[in-house]
Amino acid sequence: MSRRLARVPLLVWVFLAVPFVVEAFWVFWPAANSFSLALTRWDGIGLAEPVGLQNFRDLAADPIFLTALRNNVVWVLGFGGLSVVGGLVLAVTLNKPGPLVSLYRSAIYLPMVVSLAVSGLFWRVMYAPDGPVNGALGVLGLEHLERQWLADPAVALWAVLIAAVWRQVGYIMVLYLAGLKGTDGTLEEAAAVDGANAWQRFWRIVMPQLRGVNMVVFAVTVIDSLRTFDIVWAMTRGGPYNETQLLSTYMFQQAFTTGNLGYASAIAVVIFALAIGFIITYLARQARTED
Amino acid sequence: MTTQALRRPRPARSPWLHVAMVPVTLLWLSPIVFVLFVAVRSYDDIAGRGLGALPASFSLDGFTTALTQGGVLRSLGNSVLVTACAVVASLALSSFAAYALSRFDIPLRRTVLLTMLAGNLLPPQILLVPVASITAALGIGDTLTALVVVQVGFGIGFYTFVLHGFMRGLPNEVFEAARLDGAGPGGIFWRIVLPLSRPSLAALAALATTWIFNDLIWAMTVLRTEAKFPITAALLNLQGGFSSAWNVVAAGSLIAAVPTAIVFFLFQKQFVSGLLVGANK
C-alpha cells in the first residue's frame, strides 16, 4: 500500500484533492445537512428547533404533499413512458441515412437546446385560451375540446407533461439511435431471410441488443422525473389549486416562498429516498462499463 | 424482385417514411414557429385576433421592449458571464481530477470516481436549502460568484467521470515516451493529456454550456436581486410584468434560446456525442 502511495507524485494528489474538496463542500456536505435539517423546524433566521420525525408525520397528513407525490408518480409513468416510447419509435424510424432523415432528426432534438424554463413559456403561448392549440381544435371542428389548458385542474398536469415530453423525446431518440448503431445488422438480415417480419425482428433481435441502453434510459428518465422543476414552475408554479404540484416544486415553495426550511428539507429527503435506488442502478452500470 | 426487396430493405426510399415524418416534424416545430409568429406581431394584432392567429402585422416592438425595458440584455449578459466562468472552471478542475484518477495508482480509485459521479446524480432539491445558507454565511449570497461556484461544484463529478473514461483510453506509449524525455506529471498533463483530450473536452463544453445557460433552479436558489438574474429567471419575471404583452414575452424567450441554439448548430456533432456519454456502451 505504501509503495503504491509513494508512486503518486504530490502534484497529482493536489490535482485530485482540489476538485474533490470543491465537490465535497458544495455537494456532499450540503446533502448531509439536509438530512439533519429535515429533523428540525427552522425559519432560516433563528436557531433550528429539533422536532424529531414530526416533519415526516406532518407530510403524511399534508394533502398538498400527497397530491405532489401522486402527481410525481403520474409524471414518472406519463413523462417517462411517452418520451421513451416516442424516442424509441422515432429512433427506429429515423435510423437510416439520407438528407431528409437527418433534417427530421435535427427537428426532433432541436427543442433540447431550448431551456426547460423557456420551453414552458413557449407552451404557455400554445395553451393560451386564444392560442394555437385551441385554434387548431376549432379548425378541426373539435370546439367542445377547447379549454383553458393550464387553468383547468383536470388537464393542467397533462398539459405541462406534454410540453416536457416535447423536449425530452429528442434526448431519448439520440440515446436509442446510438444504441441501434451498435446492434449487429447481419443478425437482422439473417432473421429476414428466415422469414421474420419487421415486428418480430424488432422485438426478438434488436430489442435484446438494446438492453444496456434501456437500462440507462430507464434510470435517466426516473432521475429526471424526480428532478423536474423548471418547466412546471415556468408554466403553472404548481397551480391551479396545487393540482400540478410535484415534489420538487412543493419543496421549493416550502423552502423559499413560505420559509419552512425544515419541512422543505424533509420533502427533499423523500425525493432523495425515491431517487437513490435508480441512482445506484445507474452507478452500478457505469461501474461495470468502466472496467 | 419481392424477395430482393425483403432481403435488402431500403426503407429510406419508401414514401411512407416521409408521409409520416413530415407532419410529425411540422408538429414538433410548431411551438417554435408560433412563438416566432407572436414575437413579430404587433400588440394590437395579438390583442385583436388572438395568439393562435397567423401574423397580419410585422413589428419588432416585442424585441425592442424586451431588450430595453424588460432587462433581457442585462440578464443575457449575466447568463453569458456565469456560463463562461462555470464551464471553464469546471472543465479545468475535472480534467485535473480525471488525469489523477486515470493515469495514477490512486488507492480506492474506482470508489472515488463513482462517489464523485454519484454527487452529480443527486436530486438538487436535497442541496438547495443548505447551499442557500452556506452562500449567505460565506458572504457571497446573492452574487454571480455564488452561482458559478455552485454550478462548478455540482457539475464536477459528471465531467470528471466522462474525462476519466476518455483519458484512460489514451495510449500508454505516449506517456512512456514523455517520461523518458524527462517530463514530470504536470508537464505530461499540460503538453500531452490536455491536447489529446480535446474532442471529449469539446463535447463536454457544448453540453455544459447548454446545461448551465439553461439552469433555473440554482439561480433562483442563490440569487435574490433581479438585476443579477440570468436570462431564465429574468424571463419568468418578464412574464409576470408583461403578462398581457405576449409579443414581449415571446421575443424574450426567443432571445434566450439563441445562444444555446448557436452552440448547438456550431457544435452539433460534439453536442450529440456529449449526450451519448455514459450511454453508448
Automatic annotation (TrEMBL), chain A:
Family annotation (InterPro entries): ABC_transporter_permease, MetI-like, MetI-like_sf
PROSITE patterns: ABC_TM1
Keywords: Cell membrane, Membrane, Sugar transport, Transmembrane, Transmembrane helix, Transport
Membrane disposition: Multi-pass membrane protein
One Gene Ontology biological process: transmembrane transport
Entry superkingdom: Bacteria
The UniProt record lists the keyword Nucleus: no
Domain ABC transmembrane type-1: 69-284
The keyword Disulfide bond appears for this protein: no
One Pfam family per UniProt: BPD_transp_1
GO cellular component assignments: plasma membrane
Residues passing through the membrane, by range: 73-94, 106-126, 155-178, 213-235, 261-284
Compartments where found: Cell membrane
Protein family per UniProt: Belongs to the binding-protein-dependent transport system permease family.
Name the record gives this protein: Multiple sugar transport system permease protein
Organism: Promicromonospora thailandica
UniProtKB/TrEMBL annotation, chain B:
Phylogenetic classification of the source organism: Bacteria, Bacillati, Actinomycetota, Actinomycetes, Micrococcales
SUPFAM superfamilies assigned: MetI-like
Family membership: Belongs to the binding-protein-dependent transport system permease family.
Gene Ontology CC: one annotated term: plasma membrane
Pfam families xrefs: BPD_transp_1 (PF00528)
Residues spanning the membrane: 16-40, 80-101, 113-138, 144-167, 188-213, 245-267
ABC transmembrane type-1 domain residues: 76-267
Membrane topology: Multi-pass membrane protein
InterPro entries on file: MetI-like, MetI-like_sf
Record's protein name: Multiple sugar transport system permease protein
Primary location recorded for the protein, binned into one broad class: membrane
Example GO biological process: transmembrane transport
UniProt keyword Transport present: yes
Subcellular location field: Cell membrane
